[in-house]
Amino acid sequence: MAEFDNPYVDNDPFVRAHFDCLDCGGKLWEYAIQGQMVCEQCRSVFSTEHVFDVSVEQSAD
Ligand SMILES: [Zn+2]
To answer: Which domain of life is it from (predicted)?
Structure first.
């Protein structure tokens, strides 16, 4: 069998993110590789960077 590097072998393709959806407040799941998060409720897709930036702004006092 041909061998090749499969980035999914050692990584769960989905990682539960510690962020809420920016649209509906549902749980966001992170695509471990693409740097994106998808909402489990409304299926909106956000970039991890964008979600992180917004969350930092919201938690700033
Ligand atoms: Zn949502």
So the answer is: Archaea
Q: How far is the CA of 33 from the centre of ligand 1 (A)?
A: 20
CA of 36 to the centre of ligand 1 (A): 14
Alpha carbons 58 and 61: distance in angstroms, whole number? 8
Instruction: Count the alpha carbons within 13 Å of 7 in the hemisphere toward its beta carbon.
Output: 6
Q: Ligand 1: distance of its center to the CA of 34 in Å?
A: 19
Residue 59 has pLDDT above 60, yes or no: yes
pLDDT per position as a tens digit, 26-55:
999 887 667 889 999 999 999 988 988 888
Give the pLDDT of residue 21.
94
